[in-house]
DNA sequence: ATCGGTTGACCGATCCA
DNA sequence: TGGATCGGTCAACCGAT
């Protein structure tokens, strides 16, 4: 929480200006006829990534600020999460109310601190994407009000690792999976990028025949690492060209989060990132085209 | 034989009358 | 306050490799 609302506003403005700048670059590039062939195409991709990055961050910042305003939950009022327990330390100090879709009962939300001490939670709503850890499924449960059952996984990379995750198909968009991470990885890394080689050429760490392990693309990892620290200075928002963090609507923090907890984060896939080889096993064939369309639509957020 | 997913049962937290 | 409800977990079972 390095900056308050004012800092967030300034940062948002910077991000939008950055997007504008990149847009102009793109215009110039396209006006030039794209004669550069592959080189030009690469440049376009880079610029698009920049634009999307900036816009996503700006949007996230705006969304969070709006949420905070609505909730009258001063971010500074919440106790800071333990640094070692935070993937995104300052995130979600403001939490919006349940925003429709599947109803999230108070009971459900309050249970989150039950399992172990590290009740902090990150919700990744990333469709068919997976992280780099090895998970073993240990249960599945029909959830009241949810169309799809929730699956429960625990980290199987090392015996005794306390990390777990819950995977549930989105009611709103069945092609998307909502992944909730609970607890810390005691198997050597606190976040998915840690145990993963940053070079995709290194290949998967695990047996390719096992569906549970996939790599987080190195580019995405780098982006995460770049943006996560920045996010705490920036209204606690972060995103990458492919991911947008928004506060989870699942709970009201003041009511549901005990001291030391880190509120939920929701990551919504916003635009193209296509590590096809990494996600193929979860990819539903019928979703491929749909995804692609949606991605293009979301390159420029609506608020622009 | 081993590994991992499925599924029914159970436990405990929370809700509500 | 106690029964009802529900989410989370356990563990036996089964299929795939």
List keywords for this structure.
disordered C terminus; alpha+beta; WRKY_plant; 304 residues; N-terminal domain of TfIIb; WRKY domain-containing protein; 33% helix; transcription; eight-stranded mixed β-sheet; DNA-binding
Strand content: 5-15%
Question: What's the level 1 CATH class of the domain at 119-182?
Answer: Mainly Beta
Give the helix level as a range of percent: 25-40%
Shape: globular
**In CATH terms, what is the fold-level topology of the domain at 119-182?**
N-terminal domain of TfIIb
In order across it, which strands form the biggest sheet? 2-3-4-5-1-8-7-6
How many strand elements? 8
Give the overall pLDDT as a whole number.
49
Q: Distance between the terminal alpha carbons, to the nearest Å?
A: 27 Å
**Poorly predicted sequence stretches spanning 5 or more consecutive residues:** 1-8, 34-39, 63-120, 125-129, 189-304
Helix count from the secondary structure assignment: 7
What would you say this structure looks like, in words?
Its main location: nucleus. This is WRKY domain-containing protein. GO terms for molecular function: DNA-binding transcription factor activity; transcription cis-regulatory region binding. It is found in: Nucleus. The structure is a single chain. The protein has 304 residues and is α+β, with helices and mostly antiparallel strands. Among the domains are: 46 residues; 64 residues, N-terminal domain of TfIIb. Helix content is 33%, strand content 14%. It is built from 7 helices and 8 strands, in the order αααβββββαββαβαα. The protein has an 8-stranded mixed β-sheet with strand order 2-3-4-5-1-8-7-6. A hairpin with an 8-residue loop joins β2 and β3. The longest helix has 34 residues. The protein starts with a helix and ends in a 7-residue tail after the last helix. The N terminus and C terminus are likely disordered.
């Amino acid at each position: 929480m390095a900056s308050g609302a004012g800092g967030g506003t300034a940062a948002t403005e910077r991000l939008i200006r950055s997007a504008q700048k990149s847009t102009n670059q793109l215009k110039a590039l396209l006006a030039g006829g794209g004669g550069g062939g592959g080189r030009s195409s690469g440049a376009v991709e880079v610029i698009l990534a920049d634009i999307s990055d900036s816009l996503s961050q700006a949007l996230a910042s705006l969304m969070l600020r709006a949420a905070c305003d609505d909730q009258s939950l001063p971010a500074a009022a919440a106790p800071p999460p333990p640094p070692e327990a935070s993937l995104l330390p300052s995130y979600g100090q403001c939490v919006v109310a349940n925003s429709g879709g599947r109803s999230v009962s108070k009971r459900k939300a309050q249970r989150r601190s039950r399992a172990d001490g590290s009740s902090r939670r990150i919700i990744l709503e990333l469709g068919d994407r997976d992280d780099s850890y090895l998970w073993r499924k240990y249960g599945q449960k029909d959830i009241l009000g949810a169309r799809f059952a929730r699956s429960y996984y625990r980290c199987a990379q090392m015996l005794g690792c306390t990390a777990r995750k819950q995977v549930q198909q989105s009611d709103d968009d069945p092609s998307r999976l909502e992944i909730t991470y609970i607890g810390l990885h005691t198997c050597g890394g606190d976040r998915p990028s840690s145990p993963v080689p940053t070079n995709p050429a290194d290949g998967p760490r695990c047996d390719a025949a096992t569906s549970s392990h996939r790599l987080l693309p190195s580019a995405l990892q780098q982006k995460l690492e770049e943006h996560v620290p920045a996010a705490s200075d920036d209204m606690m928002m972060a995103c990458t060209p492919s991911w947008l963090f928004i506060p989870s609507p699942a709970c009201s923090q003041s009511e549901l989060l005990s001291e030391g907890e880190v509120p939920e984060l929701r990551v919504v896939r916003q635009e193209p990132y296509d590590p096809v080889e990494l996600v193929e096993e979860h990819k539903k064939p019928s979703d491929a085209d749909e995804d692609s369309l949606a991605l293009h639509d979301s390159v420029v957020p609506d608020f622009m």
